[in-house]
Each structure stands twice: as structure tokens, then as C-alpha cells.
Amino acid sequence: MDKKQMISFGMIIVFIAVVIIFFRDSETDITMEVDIDDERIDYIDVINLREENEQLKKEIENLDEEYESSYFDLMRIIVDSDLVYELFPGQEATTIIYREVSEDQYTLFYKDKHGYTLNVNTRNAEPQVYFHFIEQAEYNEMSWSGVASGDSYTIGGFITDERISKVQLLQNNNFTRESTVVELDYHFDVWYIVNDGEVPTEDFSTFMIQGLDENNRVLWEEAFEGAIWGIW
After folding, report:
1. CATH of the domain at 137
2. Mean predicted confidence (pLDDT) in 180-208
């Protein structure tokens, strides 16, 4: 092979090498662009999926609220009718002592073979009140007991002294909460207080339950010590 042929052959090899390198770099750039585009597409898809997920959550929450509201309205209608007795397995032994129904709340107080029970349900509110009364009250007295349900605590009892119009709870000599009194037009009234997280529940507090008349005179009181209202 003469000198000219060697030079020509060398130039051909260099040219082929340059072409190979060029196309290899081009493929890498194309691949990178595709990868980048794919990443952009994936990122956009993720954003869209997140938005769709949030929308679905809102729709589910709305459905839950609609269901709860519809269920509440159904129960409100039942409580306000004779169908209320169908709610109790032993309906023959159940006596409805008091019921009150409004647009956003229904109250039901009844006696069955287990004793007295108060049920107060409010639309879109937690906690609901389901309280079984344990301690009966002597004449011209008050009584109290307590029950825990989930994160809420309910304390309540009977009022047989017709002069008592309200009940309050003190914790470490500080006013904590005034009760709700349900006037039954019966030979007693009932009262209850729900601790829904607003009432402090520090350990080993001193508590005082007081029954007051309309002039805020204390007609009945009882103190106790303990943790979490001292009764659970």
C-alpha cells in the first residue's frame, strides 16, 4: 500500500470514527430529551392525580355529610312518631317519658328493663349524648354518675328538688361548666355535662357538683377527688 492509499484509508477511518461518535452523542441527547420529557409528563401526571385525589376526597366528605344529614333526618322523623318503639328490642317494656324534636336536634328520654336512658343527638355535632342513669335520687335531692365513650366523658343525674334549676361543675374551686337540664314534666328532671375536650382533666383534681336555684343559691353540693373527673 503506497503513501497516498494509507493517507486515504486513515482519513476514511477517522471519518467513520467521527460519524460513530457523533451519532452516539446524538442518541444520548435524544435519550436524555426523551427521559426529560418523560419526567415532565410523569410530574404533570402526578400533579393531576393529586388534584383528582383531593377532589375525590372532597366528594367523599360531601357524601358522608349528606348521608349523616339524611340519617339524622330519618331518625328525627322516627323519634317524632310511634315508630320510635321499633328502635327498642324490648319495646313492650319500654316507656317513652320525654321526647323533643327540632330541626337540628332530637332528645329522647326513656325507661326500659335496664333503667333510665337519655339520648340527645344534634345535627353535625360531636359528641352525641347517650347516657344511662345509674343512681336514683332521694326526694328533694340530686344524684350523679359518669360514663366514658371514646374521647368524651358525660356526667349527669336526676334532680328531684323542684327548686334546682341548674347544675354546675367546679374543678379545683374554679367554675368549669354549667349543665344542660332537661325538664321532663315528670316527678324528676335530669341533667348532664359533656366533656368534649374543653374541660381540663388534670390528675387528682378536686371537683364539686352544685345544684342551684334561679337566684344562684346553692341548694345541693357534693365534692370528690380524682383524675379525669374522678369517676372513671
Report:
1. 2.60.40
2. 78
